[in-house]
Specification:
Length: 430
C-alpha cells in the first residue's frame, strides 16, 4: 500500500468493535447458559479465529457480517465437546492464551497452535501457573512455545492458586481466571501493574463472582454464567490511529464516535493530554460495565513526554502510534518499561525504531523502550511491517505527514484487527 501526504481529516468515524472484548464475548458466551448476542463485534481475523475454534468445540455461533453481529449459543461450563483436530488460532495471542485456560478445565485433551508468529511467542508465562493449578499442559517442541498439548485425562481437576505474575499481562491473568472457573477453591492473580480488566468485567456481567483489590483479582469457581446481550464499544487501539492522524495533520477536526475508554485501556488519552493535545470526551456512556465516549480531536501542537511505569499496560498496543506522534512533538519523548513490546506479533521496539529511522526520525532503541527527539521532518520510505497489523497502521499515519511516498509492505495484515482501515482512512480525507 502506497501512502501519500494527504489532506486534513474531517467529519466523523466509527471504528470497529474492541478486539479484546469481542474475543471474550465468544469465550464467555460459549461457557454461559443460553444465548449471547454481541453487537458491533470485531470481524477481524483474530476474532474470527476465536469463533472458528469454539465452533470446533461444538458451539453454534451465527455471524451476521452485514450488521457486525454475532450470536453464540452457550452450553454452560461443561458444554464444550472434544475436538480431535489441532485447534488453530492463526495470529492471535489472546485466543491461544485465554483458550488454554479454558481447555485445561475440560475432561478431554486438546492440541492448540497458530501461525509462525504465534509459534515463536512465549507461552511459559501461562504454562508455569497452569501447571501449578494441576494442569497437564506442555509445549510440544519443549521450547516454551506453541503447539501446546493439554492432556486432561491424567488430571481430572484443577486447584485454585494465588499466582504472583511476573508480567502485567491481561492474557496471563485472563487465562488463569478462566481456568479458575473449573478449579477447586478460589483463584487469585496479583500482577505488577493493572492490565486490561475486560475478563473481570464480563465475567461479573455474566454472573461470576470476581473481586479486584488493587493489583489482585480473584474468581470463585463453578459460577452459573447466563448469556447476555452485549454492545461492544469501538476499539481505542483502532481509534488511536485516527486520534494521532487528526492531531498531526494541520487543520484536522475529527469526531470518533463510541470509543471504549475503560481506564485500563485509555492510557493513550492520558499521554495525548500530557503532550498538550486538544481532545474532548463527549457523550460518556456505560454498557456491560464498559465505558465509552465520543472523542472530538483537533490538530494540536504537541510536546515530548516521559512514559513509563504503571501506565504502560494501559497503552501497550498503542506504543507504535505513540512513537509516530512523538516524531511530531517538540522535544524528547522517552518510553520506558515497555519490554513486553519485544514479544508481540513482531519485536515492536526494533521494528518501530528501524522503520522510523528509515523515514528520517531521530530515534534510538533502549532495552525497554525508545527515545525520540521530535521535530525532524519525515520522508517517505519502504516500511517492512513484518506482517504486524499495529506497525502497518502506525506507519500509514506517519506516511500522511511524510514528504514523498511511503510504501507499506504486507499492508493486508491490518485485517487482523481492522479490515477496513485503509478504506476508512481514505474516506476521511476526501
Ligand atoms: O488480553 C487481551 O485482550 C490483550 C492483552 C495484551 O497482551 P498481553 O496480555 O500479552 O499484555 C494486548 O497486547 C493484546 O493485544 C490483547
Ligand atoms: C498483541 C496483540 O494481539 P495478540 O496478543 O492477541 O496477538 C495486538 O493486537 O497488538
Amino acid at each position: 500500500m502506497i501512502i501519500k501526504k494527504r489532506n486534513p481529516l474531517k467529519g466523523y468515524i466509527t471504528v470497529p468493535g474492541d478486539k479484546s472484548i469481542s474475543h471474550r464475548g465468544v469465550m464467555i458466551g460459549a461457557l454461559a447458559n443460553g444465548k449471547t448476542e454481541v453487537n458491533h463485534f470485531l470481524l477481524g481475523e483474530d476474532c474470527l479465529a476465536t469463533i472458528s475454534c469454539f465452533r470446533r468445540l461444538g458451539i453454534n455461533i451465527d455471524i451476521d457480517f452485514q450488521n457486525e453481529k454475532v450470536v453464540i449459543e452457550g452450553k454452560g461450563l461443561d458444554g464444550l465437546k472434544a475436538q480431535n483436530d489441532i485447534l488453530n488460532v492463526g495470529n492471535s495471542g489472546t485466543t491461544i492464551r485465554l483458550m488454554s485456560g479454558i481447555l485445561c478445565g475440560q475432561n478431554f485433551s486438546s492440541l492448540i497452535t497458530g501461525d509462525s508468529s504465534i509459534q515463536s511467542r512465549p507461552m511459559k508465562r501461562i504454562l508455569t501457573p497452569l501447571k501449578q493449578m494441576g494442569a497437564d499442559i506442555e509445549s510440544l517442541n519443549h521450547n516454551g512455545c506453541a503447539p501446546l498439548s493439554i492432556n486432561s485425562s491424567k488430571c481430572p481437576s484443577l486447584k485454585g492458586i494465588h499466582y504472583n505474575s511476573p508480567v502485567a499481562s491481561a492474557q496471563v491473568k485472563s487465562c488463569l481466571l478462566l481456568a479458575g472457573l473449573y478449579a477447586e477453591g478460589d483463584t487469585l492473580v496479583t500482577e505488577p501493574a493493572i492490565s486490561r480488566n475486560h475478563t473481570e468485567l464480563m465475567l461479573t456481567n455474566f454472573g461470576a463472582e470476581v473481586k479486584s483489590i488493587d493489583n489482585t483479582v480473584s474468581v470463585k469457581p463453578r459460577p452459573s454464567l447466563t448469556g447476555r446481550k452485549i454492545d461492544i464499544p469501538g476499539d481505542i487501539s483502532s481509534a488511536a490511529y485516527f486520534i494521532a492522524a487528526a492531531l498531526i495533520v494541520p487543520n484536522s477536526e475529527l469526531l470518533i464516535k463510541n470509543v471504549g475508554i475503560n481506564p485500563t485501556r485509555a492510557g493513550i488519552l492520558k499521554v495525548c493530554q500530557m503532550m498538550g493535545a486538544d481532545i474532548k470526551l463527549e457523550n460518556i456512556k456505560e454498557n456491560g460495565n464498559e465505558l465509552s465516549a465520543d472523542l472530538l480531536v483537533r490538530h494540536s501542537n504537541l510536546k515530548g513526554v516521559n512514559i513509563g511505569g504503571s501506565i504502560i499496560p494501559t497503552l501497550i498496543d498503542e506504543i507504535p502510534i505513540i512513537a509516530v506522534l512523538s516524531c511530531f512533538a517538540k522535544g524528547r519523548t522517552v518510553i520506558r518499561d515497555a519490554q513486553e513490546l519485544k514479544v508481540k506479533e513482531s519485536n515492536r521496539i526494533d521494528v518501530i525504531v528501524d522503520n522510523l529511522s528509515r523515514m528520517g526520525a531521530d530515534i534510538e532503541a533502549t532495552d525497554d523502550g525508545m527515545i525520540i527527539n521530535g521535530g525532524k521532518p519525515l520522508h517517505g520510505a519502504t516500511i517492512d511491517s513484518k506482517m504486524d497489523h499495529r506497525i502497518a497502521m502506525a506507519f500509514a499515519i506517519a506516511g500522511l505527514m511524510a514528504d514523498g511516498d511511503t510504501n507499506i509492505l504486507d499492508s493486508e495484515c491490518v485485517a487482523i484487527s481492522y479490515p477496513g482501515f485503509f478504506k476508512d482512512l481514505i474516506n476521511l480525507q476526501n
